[in-house]
From TrEMBL:
This is FUSC family protein. The chain crosses the membrane at residues 26-46, 52-71, 78-98, 104-122, 134-150, 156-177, 360-381, 387-406, 457-474, 486-504. It comes from the Bacteria. Belongs to the YccS/YhfK family. It is a multi-pass membrane protein. It comes from Roseibium sediminicola.
């Protein structure tokens, strides 16, 4: 039992490193309680205005200021909360003015305007950033303007409660204790480095020889790297510290697996010989120390003379030893602390040069407006007791692509159903303890934030539980009426999905093909370019990674359209990994190729033969990329690998640097080709390779 509890706690910390989201959820809970209390107290001094109504207004304002402010640095969150608060105050001010002028027609006027506000909010999606979040927020928060203005508008007290809520959110989130994103990153970085160093020691000694031991060790590395990526993202766009970047961690993981694989392929005699070599053991110890600390003690270069080709060894044994030496050299370079600032954008964003009114999401605004109008009309026509739930569900599920809308629809529906059923099951047990029910509602608020970005199905279930239990406790609604939460959600989800499907649907099929072609062309162009200055190299690398990232971002929507189950089960996620790994191996291949060309120029002996052989390998890699782009089978090159390995003994007089880079070039070429084969073997992704014309490469 204790072991299971410890594992559950470890999983939670991995899911939310440093409890950054959990603390934000606690702040949300405190904001709701404090703002609601302030609103209720103020209501006691305002004749003719319900204290409960003001409490709801203040709590909703404060809550949404926090919900739409992502976890970031303190300065970034100050800016975000201030912006969200100003937008809410403006929205509530407009609502107060309209409600006062509408008079007896306030209900129909505010309902009709909600459709317009939703369309406006969704149009801001095209602007991205804070405006994208603000657009969703105002689409939701007009509901509170509507509810708070019936039967009579509270007038100036609407924006007043927005001010109370925003100030409460600001005070609690910014002024109370919060875990440091920097300290959390350092803790996770140290855990990554410790496991990496341990992996290297075990791999260099052949201790990871079984498939299960290697799989478990690599899984630990992968899990910790996922935590590191989360922590790095939470540092903000311009972190002011150096450390281990997620990209470097990925490359280190690949290099560590090379050490493991090459060591296991050595004969027992060759492995025993290495284990007795003091120079080899010293190199492993130096790299391990640097992996763990992030800095080297005085030495800038790693000595690998122990890997110099030995004519007494078989060429296969020499090849594996050189692989180990090359991997250790890469680990030596990657282990050092570096800037965590993301790679600068290589190309000016098209949106930055386009007028803002052209960047508005007009298609999405049309879908949202029509869906909201249909949901509102059906709610009125069917005389639903909580018709606003239908429209609210439309706001939640509708996104800028059909696949993502489908995914969000299923998540919202399943989560709502589970949450309602749990609330119904718990209610009879707690029927005589309303305080305990309210306590459960309050205690569940932090969990919403923990799961909101990572698993929306769970978050939806918790939200539905909160709504059902809260309404029954605070307003005394009967259970039978709360079942409406479920079919109102189903109706709203169907309307939202229908609008995305029928009104100028944005399908991902064409997008994924264009992006896949663009990504593979970027890989081919990256390999054709010679490395010049460090700045140009970083720019080329940024282009390649931007293409991979954009492809992965669209992959979820494509997967949801083509095979919905895989998007929820995660069965297609390994393909996303292949895309990222391909980018990394393309980078490694070019680095090795550049090094080989430079070193052969400095060592003229046999340079022509080596360059001819390297050219054959270049052609093989380019042919593999071209085959995928043109939809034809890949053609093997007989004897290329054998010729490559036979050249290893001839490099014995050139030193270990050329020999290790020579080996790395073949190894990384093989990995590039295998990644491409892996992408083509999957039926889902193979459709992305179908194309009508081959894009030109520049």
């Amino acid at each position: 039992m204790l072991q299971h509890a410890r594992k559950a706690l470890a999983d939670l910390l991995a899911y939310d490193p440093g409890a950054l989201r959990l603390v934000r959820g606690v702040h949300l809970m405190l904001t709701v309680l404090a703002a609601a209390t302030l609103g209720n107290v103020i209501g006691g001094y305002v004749p003719g205005v319900s204290g409960f109504k003001l409490a709801v207004m203040a709590a909703a304002s404060g809550a949404h200021c926090l919900i739409f402010t992502p976890v970031a640095t303190r300065r970034q969150e100050i800016t975000s909360i201030a912006a969200m608060g100003a937008i809410l105050i403006s929205l509530f001010s407009v609502g107060a003015l309209v409600g006062t002028l509408a008079g007896a027609s306030i209900s129909i006027v505010l309902q009709v305007l909600w459709v317009g506000v939703i369309a406006l909010g969704f149009s801001l999606d095209g602007l991205g950033g804070v405006w994208q979040r603000a657009g969703r927020m105002i689409s939701i928060c007009w509901l509170f303007v509507f509810m708070g203005s019936l039967p009579v508008s509270p007038g100036v007290w609407l924006p007043a409660m927005a001010i109370v809520g925003a100030l409460t959110a600001f005070t609690i989130r910014i002024c109370l204790w919060r875990p440091s994103t920097e300290a959390t990153y350092r803790r996770v970085e140290a855990a990554n480095r410790k496991v990496m160093a341990a992996f290297l020691k075990d791999a260099s000694q052949g201790a990871l020889s079984t498939r299960q031991s290697a799989s478990d060790a690599l899984k630990d590395l992968s899990d910790l790297r996922a935590e590191l990526r989360t922590c790095a993202q939470l540092l903000g766009p311009k972190p002011a510290l150096k450390g281990l970047s997620p990209e470097a961690a990925t490359m280190i993981e690949l290099a560590l697996d090379v050490v493991r694989d090459a060591t296991n392929q050595l004969s027992n005699e060759a492995r025993a010989g290495l284990s007795r070599d003091a120079a080899y053991l010293g190199s492993v110890r130096a790299v391990s120390d640097k992996l763990q600390s992030g800095s080297a003690s005085g030495t800038r270069e790693l000595a690998t003379d122990w890997a110099k080709p030995d004519p007494a060894l078989a060429s296969g044994e020499q090849f594996q030893i050189l692989r180990i030496a090359q991997a250790l050299r890469r680990l030596w370079l990657l282990a050092e602390e570096a800037d965590l600032e993301p790679l600068a954008a290589t190309l000016s964003a098209e949106g930055g040069r386009t007028a803002w009114w052209r960047r508005l999401a007009w298609r999405l605004a049309l879908q949202a407006g029509v869906a909201a109008a249909a949901g509102t009309a059906l709610g009125v026509a069917l005389d639903l007791s909580h018709a606003y739930w239908v429209t609210l569900t439309v706001i939640i599920v509708l996104t800028n692509s059909l696949g993502t809308t489908l995914q969000k629809t299923v998540q919202r529906t399943v989560g709502t159903a589970v949450g309602v059923v749990i609330a119904m099951a718990v209610d009879p047990v707690l029927a005589g303890a309303p305080e305990l029910r309210l306590g459960l509602v309050i205690a569940a608020i932090p969990a919403v934030i923990v799961f909101m970005d990572r698993n929306y199905t769970i978050a939806s279930g918790i939200i539905s539980f909160l709504v059902v239990m809260g309404l029954q406790t605070l307003e005394g609604l009967p259970l039978a009426e709360l079942w409406a939460r479920l079919y109102d959600t189903l109706l709203g989800a169907a309307i939202g999905l229908g609008a995305a499907w029928l009104l100028f649907p944005k399908r991902s099929g064409n997008s994924i093909r264009v992006l896949m072609d663009g990504y593979l062309v970027a890989c081919a162009n990256f390999l054709k370019c010679e490395t010049h200055s460090e700045q140009e190299d970083r720019r080329d690398l940024a282009r390649l990674r931007a293409a991979a990232t954009q492809l992965i971002a669209t992959a979820d929507a494509y997967r949801a359209e083509q095979a919905p189950w895989s998007s929820f089960s995660g069965s297609g996620k390994k393909l996303d990994v292949l895309v990222i790994v391909l980018a990394n191996y393309v980078v490694l291949y070019r680095q090795a190729r550049t090094a080989v060309r430079r070193e052969t120029e400095q060592s003229p002996t046999g340079a022509a033969e080596l360059e001819t052989l390297a050219g054959r390998l270049d052609d093989r890699v380019q042919d593999a990329l071209s085959a995928v782009l043109k939809g034809r089978p890949q053609e093997a090159v007989p004897g290329l690998a054998e010729d490559w390995q036979e050249a290893v003994p001839e490099l014995s007089g050139a030193g270990t640097r050329l020999a290790t880079d020579w080996v790395a070039m073949l190894y990384h070429a093989r990995k590039v080709i295998r990644c491409l084969e892996g992408l083509r073997e999957d039926k889902l992704w193979s459709g992305a390779f179908e194309r009508r014309s081959v894009p030109s490469s520049h």
